[in-house]
Amino acid sequence: MTLFSIPEAALDSQATATHPKTNVWVSANAGSGKTHVLSERVIRLLLNGTPPARILCLTYTNAASAVMQSRIFRTLSSWNELDDEQLQKTLSQLENEPINAQKLTYARQLFARALETPGGLKIQTIHAFCESLLHYFMLEANIAGHFELLDDINRKKLLQESRRQLLEHKDAQSSLKHLLKVVSERSFNQLLYEATEKQHKLSDFLSSLLSENEEEKLRALFNLAPDETNQQLLEKIQQIAHLPLYALTHCQTYGNQNLKDMIAKFSQLAEASCETTIINIISDIYFTTAGEPRSFSRLSCKKADEIWPFIQQMLEDKQSKLSVLLEKYQCLKSVTLNRAAFQICAIYLKIYTNLKKTNGFLDFDDLIERTLHLLQRKGASQWVHYKLDSGLDHILLDEAQDTNPEQWQIIQLLAQEFFTGHSQRDNVRTLFAVGDEKQSIYSFQGAAPENFAANGRMIQKKAQQAKQKFEKIQLNYSFRSTADVLKSVDLVFETPENYKGLSAENTKTVHEAIRVHSPGDVILWDALSKEKNEFPDDWHVTVDHWDTPAIHLAEKIAETIAGWLHKGEMLPAKGRLMRASDIMILVRKRDEFVSALSRALKQRNVPVAGADRLQLTNHISVRDLMALARFVLQPQDDLSLACVLKSPLFALTEEELFQLAANRTGSLWQSLCMHASTHLSFKDTFESLSKYRNLVDKMPVFEFYSHILNNDKGRQKILARLGSEANDVLDAFMDYTLTIQKTGLPGLQAFLETLSTSEPEIKREFDQNHEEVRIMTIHAAKGLEAAVVFLVDPGSAIWHPQHAPHLLKISLNNKHLNDQQGFIWRPNAEFNTKPSEKALSHLKERAEEEYKRLLYVGMTRAEDRLFICGYNGEKTSSDTWLQLVKKALKPHAVPIKGPAEDIAAWRFHITPSSSTPINQEASYIECPTFPPLPDFFSHKLPEEPALPRPLKPSVASLSIEADNELFSHSKQFSISPVLGEINTNRAFSIEYGNIVHRLLQYLPNCDPEKRRDYARHYLNTKASHWDESQREKALHHVWQILDHSYLKPLFSDNSRAEVSLMGIVKIRGKEQAISGQIDRLYITKNSIICADFKTGTPPANETAIASRYLLQMALYRKILQVIHPNKDVQALLVYTKEAKIFELSPEKLDALLDEIAT
């Protein structure tokens, strides 16, 4: 095994990233130790005194969460096994400072502390966190306390019920009638599917679109004028499209045959009356089938040369005008269609939402949306933040590049108190995120690489504004891959056309290898191509037996792997023989290649893991078991019985089945009954089927199928016919029967109905400890690694419009719609418009960029050896993975012998091969030595003196407290609590002031038409002991303020009431904490207005204002200036009795603060 040392630069970067008191944003290359950095940061946080419950670590998958927890607990538990000297050395290296005996003892306790923390360490996916948060704040989130996560089975049931209710809904009938006349049922079903997938964003858009004037808003989406009608456009199109009679006559006389054919179409146009026919003829005359302008340059004969140029120019002018008008016509047609589609979607989503609510379900999208709403909800969010603020000190985010915008909003809201300086605790609170834009491959979930960079800049700005430490770190050193693999990656992504879209900066990749001298290589196999499209003559031969390029490549890969494992191939970098678990085969999608490769490996006795995803009902063995269920439930079902008889369970031949089926007078079952008494070959089959019919009513589903597969050796029969790959399918099928038996309705009929309608897909996590070859998609392999990786290029097109969504996202620049993002529906190419083409073009560009990021992820899974191969269909492409890699590496590679004569191969490597002897695996990594630490590292810094108890300048509360001793000698400020004196207001005045303040706080949020009713109700409740005149007086004073034109901004939607404020101000030479509450605050881009309401007698002028009030506003203004240094702060004193407003002079307030500062 090759030993290697870790450069100091790599260790320094990791040490900075794990510093427990620094906000850190890490951009990390593949294999650079992201999980190690995350785990070590959590450990350092624990070691520095952070309680386990106050750390939140968000991972992308449950598997990643389990790996992190395992690493952390393994490290913490190992500390209890070390003696003091060993532990001190370990902790000193971790903390980069000497460790005292007290910290040694504390470190040994951390394992128990972490285990005993209620709920354990919060290392979980963001969906799991949101679920726990919603359970904790179910009342505030307005959801059922017993809610459950919606699984695939129940989801499909609810969607089917939603569809049924939609089709019966009276408000949807008109839209359904129009829609189903124009599009197919498949397009309609796709619309409902995509509406569900985009349910929350689409619902927000629809609520804005369909509120009023939806026709006008839809026209604006397609850039149509409000007054243009379909009939007007059609008349304009016809008027422009027709040629004058002299031109028609001239072309008919002198034109060539192509021109005469075109003139014949003008004759058809003159006779056409159907709108669709008219548009089709005009489009055919002036445009190609692809929609491009048709060329008229070669339609004339020589005799027409003198006049033809004028006619040609006329046709081209008409063509130009028609291009614009036909686009408008197409858009107008799309407006009508989209209006119907969006009305249907609105009803459908409302039904679906109500069904989920009724049944107490939330899906994964709901978890994010409800949590976001909870954290943003006015009133409830403050309480949630208060509770979270007391239990959350550090947030760590893994795979940040795959976090979508809504999830980012949640993280920002959770961390917003970290950067305000106003928290229940004064300890350092940090945000840590690690990710790699180059590995952002989940665009279908809303992730985008530019989000990672944008959020990094935003967090950096917040940290700097809060004067907190922030580090942006790039981890370029890779611990995983050899220098050969990393160099090949850098060569591939060296050119602008290849690294475009790889990251937000659009720069080439830079990787530094830790394993500099470890031997490795990159092997290229030339693509296998399809020579001709021939089908086998024998129709009995299945497609899998036909030697397609995919099947041929699968056989060659299987032969290569079998040769390695059976002959003892060396892994020089590891100093041992290769194992099955060292090999990973990556594909772009699950297709026939995966099944063929799995079968080929098993035929060669190579252990192979099952598929990471199984579509149960697609496998023939499950279909046979379903046919058996249909028969035992309905013996007259001849087709199901025929399938069962031909299945491996009974294995009747074609001749035997023909003997039963031909010339029968009754059902196939009756024929089998008759033949069983006279033909011994049918007797066992009849008895077994009769037994199953008896068992079906006596056994639960799991036991029924278990009896068939185990007791009657059904599994053995199926594996003998279909091969060992069916074993995984049967295991998944039996697991599914047990799940449905526990959660669904009892009985085989209910199970069969659930299985048929839900078509379950089983997802499985691979265990890297199993000695099996792994075959998986690149998406599934994210975060995994293997010594040897095969990257298989299917040669298919990167993008195809048929795979594009029908509901297309578009950016809005529309005054009628509030959302930044909207949707248009394009069910097929017939409804192409410029907005839809622009959206499709954007999707294509993003797909091409993600295609390259997938290549990056696939290549960087390899530790030692990387094989890149592929196959082509009838059409080949120049920008496939294999072609991109060949173009970059072939000039630097040497030809070698391929796996077959028809497959050329090349080898790329930069490290010399070594003859490493077989050795036991070592885990030793040579670490650099460090010089002795300076003496000051062993001395504890003196503690900062604690600030005095916060002073409260406002006199609006009875609970005012102050540091009386500090200002006992001052007489200038008569009764300011900041200066330590006592409030002597009468009880009624205080009660009156409090009620007026409450009215001014809450009434602006009420409906203007109902404000007086609410105010009177409040006064009658809270001030029932007052005289009627006193209540009317209070009401009059409040309305004077609310209706005052100068104060309108203070009560607008952008204003805030009762804003808590805290800051540090120098008083009498000492820094003093000031805490207060501003009655009303209005913040704009450049300025701030803060106002305080007074219910006492107003002074005659500003000079007569009590000094305590001036000091109060001066302190508020000073704190706001610190928080918002680039904004002008205007302070107002508002007296409610006469609606008297004093705009306090900034100079006077500043002078007042200067006076008390010294």
From TrEMBL:
Keywords from the UniProt entry: ATP-binding, DNA damage, DNA repair, DNA-binding, Exonuclease, Helicase, Hydrolase, Isomerase, Nuclease, Nucleotide-binding
Enzyme class: isomerase
Residues bound to ATP: 28-35
Keyword Coiled coil listed: no
EC number: 5.6.2.4
Residue stretches making up the UvrD-like helicase ATP-binding domain: 7-482
Record domain UvrD-like helicase C-terminal: where: 483-783
GO molecular function terms noted in the UniProt entry: 3'-5' DNA helicase activity; ATP binding; DNA binding; exonuclease activity
Biological processes per GO annotation: recombinational repair
Keyword Plastid: no
Pfam families linked: PDDEXK_1 (PF12705), UvrD-helicase (PF00580), UvrD_C (PF13361)
Classification via Gene3D superfamilies: 3.30.160.800, 3.90.320.10, P-loop containing nucleotide triphosphate hydrolases, PCRA, domain 4
Catalytic activity: Couples ATP hydrolysis with the unwinding of duplex DNA by translocating in the 3'-5' direction; ATP + H2O = ADP + phosphate + H(+)
InterPro entries for this protein: DNA_helicase_AddA, DNA_helicase_UvrD-like_C, DNA_helicase_UvrD/REP, P-loop_NTPase, PDDEXK-like_dom_sf, PDDEXK_AddAB-type, Restrct_endonuc-II-like, UvrD-like_ATP-bd
Superkingdom of this protein's organism: Bacteria
Annotated PANTHER family: ATP-DEPENDENT DNA HELICASE SRS2 (PTHR11070:SF2), UVRD / RECB / PCRA DNA HELICASE FAMILY MEMBER (PTHR11070)
Protein name: DNA 3'-5' helicase
Taxonomy of the source species: Bacteria, Pseudomonadati, Pseudomonadota, Alphaproteobacteria, Hyphomicrobiales
